[in-house]
Amino acid sequence: MFxxxxxxxxGEIACRVAATARRLGVRTVAVYADADARAKxxxxxxxxxxxxxxxxxxxxxxxxxxxxxxxxxxxxxIHPGYGFLSENEAFANACAEAGLVFIGPPASAxxxxxxxxxxxxxxxxxGVPLVPGYHGADQDPALLQREADRIxxxxxxxxxxxxxxxxxxxxxxxxxxxxxxxxxQREARNSFGSDAVLIEKYVxxxxxxxxxxxxxxxxxxxxxxERDCSVQRRHQKVLEEAPAPGMTPxxxxxxxxxxxxxxxxxxxxxxxxxxFIVEQPEGYAHPEAMRFYFMExxxxxxxxxxxxxxxxxxxxxxxxxxxxxxxxxxxxxxxLCIQGHAIEARICAETPDNHFLPATGTLTVYRKPDCTAxxxxxxxxxxxxxxxxxxxxxxxTISPFYDSMVAKLIVHGATREEALARLDTALxxxxxxxxxxxxxxxxxxxGSRSFAQADLDTALxxxxxxxxxxxxxxxxxxxVAAAVAQTLLAERASESADPFSRRDGWRPHGxxxxxxxxxxxxxxxxxxLSYLHDGALQLTLGDVSGVLAFDxxxxxxxxxxxxxxxGQRQTVQxxxxxxxxxxxxxxxxxxxxxxxxxxxxGEAAAEGGRLTAPMPGKVVSFAVKAGDAVKxxxxxxxxxxxxxxxxxxxxxxxxxxxxxYAPGDQVSEGAELLKLSVG
Length: 679
Ligand code: ADP
Ligand code: ADP
Ligand code: MG
Fold this sequence. Notes:
It is a single chain. About 45% of the residues are buried. The chain has five domains: about 5-105, Rossmann fold; about 130-200, 2-Layer Sandwich (Dna Ligase, domain 1), CATH 3.30.1490; about 205-470, CATH 3.30.470.20; about 475-600, Glycoprotein, Type 4 Pilin (2-Layer Sandwich), CATH 3.30.700.30; about 610-679, CATH 2.40.50.100. The radius of gyration is 32 Å and the shape is elongated. It starts with a strand and ends with a strand. Helix 4 (about 90-95) packs antiparallel against helix 5 (about 105-115), helix 7 packs across helix 8 and helix 13 packs antiparallel against helix 14. It contains 18 helices and 40 strands. Strand 10 (about 205-215) and strand 11 form a beta hairpin. The longest helix is centred in the first third of the chain and has 19 residues, at about 175-190. It is an alpha+beta fold. An eight-stranded antiparallel sheet has the order 14-13-10-11-12-15-22-20. It has an eight-stranded antiparallel β-barrel with strand order 24-25-26-27-28-29-30-31. A five-stranded parallel sheet has the order 3-2-1-4-5. It binds adenosine-5'-diphosphate (ADP) (2 copies) and magnesium ion.
């Protein structure tokens, strides 16, 4: 085993590798860019070397600098993580030339699998099933058009050098092919520096099922079962699970054997993933009819490797380090087995309701679900339940320089149902304020009919769109109640116990009403809070009205409370950032803007001698007549609004100058009820 390794990556994967290294007693060197000077991955390693500016090309992709850093710190090997240099055969070669071990496959295997078209030619020769298509070297547009026509529409044009879901075009009919080809080639040239493409039959309602393989330098190769990564957006994975629902032992054995054959065809060493596209001609309820085709091989550790760790109880980074240091594979195929079910959710900084647009910002609040069971377990075990892999801490920034992934939430259960329930709870307990994330969207996906029934295919998200986008499970009444309650709690905490100095509208005589202005889902929203004689609070918004009750619960930041309103009782946590109140509870999360709350914090508005109606309603009675002297707090009038009576009290000592309405009159909000001469 190595004494010291350099981790040529950042974020969660660098932290992930560092954790295993630490457990094995291997010392670690981090590299970092300007933007990451105080990043979690730097703190996770024993030492760190600054390698340049924030843009990847100035830092994490500068492999000469990284190799220099490894040599200067005495590291014996480099772990590339995923992304960045992980699939760069020139870098793998440069490591070898510098006398460093590249913790990954031989450069020749990376190269062989690097281009989709060439890897397909190799796989064809190795007898691995391919999607019907064209992957030849001849790129004459007329020939490509003829091939597409021969394959039959719809087809998918893919950049041979593509990756990360980029450089793909689906084409529905022959007339559209030429234009799609030109645009795919343009994108491929710009993104990958090569415009070579291949064409595949577009598999209908396909599933993405991939096999984790592991090879060693003694010629052994095993498969660690499959992962289903069918839930995707923009051809990128959102949820991954293992094992694949509906997988039969026969199909698993066939796919495993095909994946091992693929790896052995390129003398594979280390962790790799063979991705298959799986056709389900009879639908998800008939897995026996599923057919699989090779898509590509990723010659690295994959983002979703933790689900495999969860079901096998193994640490794949440990296997990588052992294999790279020349040890044989720790287990043989017959020793490997599947325990339970695991699901990973990728928490990303993005706006699902706006075409998944990536978001940036500061993690003002970043609360993770309870992972203590996992942290106590030395390796994954079925008891571990919930695991979070991340590379950020509260207060960190998600910058535009790198990936939008904030964290990965991995749950494990005895069954898929148990894992699903755990995932929903873990997502509900994940609380992020400061930037837009897909956490609530993920909860909607997990709760969707298709996902719950394991009716999986790559079109799950568009198919379930109506249940996934523009959802707010908290709802208006609870959001308003939470925002009002948190305002009152904050005021009580910050003001003196003297009731006369309190701003929350409390008065010794009669009922006062306080108005709250909100903006909720882009719409203005008005709420009124009445202080009843018995000390209870009545909250009214539109046609919803009821008693509001809340008790503060202990919390380190923000506000936590037991909240009752409108027939609901929830433990609610809120954080207010500027005017926005972020509301979290078991139902979901939402935001509500409290517009200038304190400016409206007065009781029935008293401006000089004006006493106005706090809401539209009916004048029930006046307790005074013109010429009466009144004391501050003395009841002046009773109004009825929203099915309740409200008493208007004198804001100060004075004399009633004039009553402007008679009992029974309807008044609009803000109408002046009587004139009061103050003083
Ligand atoms: P696939 O290649 O099948 O899409 P993954 O979903 O594992 O496999 O990753 C897609 C690619 O996205 C990776 O090769 C990597 O380059 C990039 N990527 C994903 N997440 C991150 C991240 N957090 N940091 C850097 N790169 C990432
Ligand atoms: P990348 O290198 O970007 O990961 P892949 O070839 O792995 O590219 O494909 C990414 C995704 O695109 C797959 O997971 C699948 O959802 C979809 N896809 C790829 N090939 C096909 C196909 N022939 N038919 C239907 N969908 C496909
Ligand atoms: Mg892929």
